[in-house]
Design a protein that fits this description.
By secondary structure, the chain is an alpha/beta fold. Helices cover 39% and strands 18% of the residues. The chain has 5 helices and 5 strands; from the N terminus they run βααβαβαββα. The chain has a 5-stranded parallel beta sheet, sandwiched between helices. Strand 3, helix 4 and strand 4 form a beta-alpha-beta unit. The radius of gyration is 14 Å and the shape is globular.
Length: 145
């Protein structure tokens, strides 16, 4: 099984950006955690992080053409604004789990609506970095490795 982990804007700033919300761990630590977890499960994993919506759309489309089995996606602020990302996920029809480090339901009102969720098999929020591992497990259960 091969999965792609896609992270949207400002995720590269983990450890610097609002540590009271996102914690003190950095993006490199997140990647290492996920890579080690996937290795222990016998999964191939690739990572994309971008602050640009078009790059994220390109990554979703690449997941289709390169035959990835699943996507773990933290669209960050694009969660609440991007119909284009929703359309990309709907077009490729690859099982996708939306993940958020913080519990967006306990934050500002505008963060409580996700366009992306409409194309995902599950949304995981508020579990910190562990949410990514839960998302991988959800993909494995859904796909049946």
């Amino acid at each position: 099984m091969k999965i792609m982990v896609i992270n949207g804007p400002n995720i590269n700033m983990l450890g610097i950006r609002e540590p009271d919300v996102y914690g003190n761990e950095n993006y490199e630590g997140l990647v290492e955690l996920i890579r080690n977890y996937c290795e222990s499960k016998g999964l191939a994993v690739d990572f994309v992080q971008s602050n640009h919506e078009g790059v994220l759309i390109d990554a979703i489309q690449r997941a289709y053409f390169d035959k990835y089995d699943g996507i773990v996606f933290n669209p960050a602020a694009y969660t609440h604004t991007s119909i284009a990302l929703l359309d990309a996920l709907k077009a490729v029809k690859i099982p996708c789990v939306e993940v958020h480090i913080s519990d967006v339901d306990k934050r500002e009102d505008f963060r409580r609506h996700s366009y992306i969720a409409n194309a995902c098999i599950k949304t995981i929020k508020g579990l910190g970095f562990a949410g990514y591992l839960r998302a991988i497990d959800a993909l494995m259960e859904s796909i049946g490795d």
